[in-house]
Design brief:
Elements lengths: L1 H11 L6 E3 L6 H12 L8 E3 H12 L4 E5 L2 H9 L3 E2 L6 E4 L7 H12 L3 E4 L5 E4 L2 E4 L1 H12 L4 E2 L5 H11 L7 E4 L2 H10 L3 E5 L6 H4 L8 E3 L8
Parallel strand pairs: 1-2, 3-4, 3-5, 5-6, 6-9, 10-11, 11-12
Antiparallel strand pairs: 7-8
Length: 233
């Protein structure tokens, strides 16, 4: 409810905002529908910026070619295809690695050989685990780590807390670092994205990072609140 109220307050005051997510399994449209159906939060798909979109924007900027080998779910593949790239295992210019729940050894082999031959190695997001009811499952970062070991190469990481997604989000908003604040409940991704990129950060103690962990954090968020309802603007 606090999240819904927060977004509605932003909309009422006509303050620009973006949902910046490391999720590559869903398209912005699918994220938009989830926000509406599960949380009654109504935004446009243009107000959602995923690690998939940031990856495509990064590749368009690099201009190394149009052929991409993707390890990932349909949301990642669709987003890259929609940006004008060809998905192929034949001599790709880029290898993009995201979360893939249907990962096979052969996919790892194809990616490893392509990177060894000179394909630009990209990881969509560094999340090592995904919290689920079953426990902490392997995330995209775990798959990227396996390929880094196999190829002896470091991937260019796009998603939070890295600079690429944050800079691209700022470009999309047409705002500077000192005009925005990074809001989130996960210190390792959301808040580090603010801290590491010199953007003010607001940690909300309603999710991933508990109140008990705050004092032990090596670098403190700019602000810490229990609920988004407490934030006055």
């Amino acid at each position: 409810m606090a999240g819904k109220n927060f977004v509605e307050r932003l909309q009422k005051k006509q303050l620009p905002f973006l949902f910046v997510t490391n999720n590559t399994t869903k398209t912005p449209k699918a994220v938009q529908e989830k926000l509406a159906n599960q949380f009654d939060i109504h935004v446009t798909s243009n107000e959602i910026y995923t690690a998939t979109l940031a990856t495509a924007d990064y590749m368009l900027e690099k201009k190394l070619g149009k052929k991409v080998y993707v390890i990932g779910e349909s949301g990642l593949k669709e987003g890259i295809k929609d940006a004008g790239f060809e998905l192929t295992a034949e001599n790709p210019d880029y290898v993009v690695v995201g979360l893939d729940t249907k990962l096979t050894y052969e996919k790892i082999v194809v990616a490893t050989l392509a990177i060894q031959k000179g394909a630009h190695f990209i990881g969509t997001n560094p999340d090592k685990n995904i919290p689920t009811e079953r426990g902490l499952l392997p995330g995209a970062g775990s798959l990227i780590g396996m390929l880094e070991i196999a190829t002896k190469q470091k991937a260019v990481i796009i998603g939070k807390p890295e600079a690429i997604i944050m800079n691209k989000a700022l470009e999309k908003l047409k705002l500077t670092k000192d005009e925005v604040i990074m809001v989130g409940d996960n210190y390792e991704t959301d808040i580090r994205a603010g801290i590491d990129n010199e953007i003010d950060s607001l940690l909300v103690l309603t999710g991933f990072t508990p109140k008990s962990a705050v004092n032990a954090l090596s670098v403190q968020p700019t602000f810490v609140i229990n609920s988004l309802d407490e934030w006055v603007f």
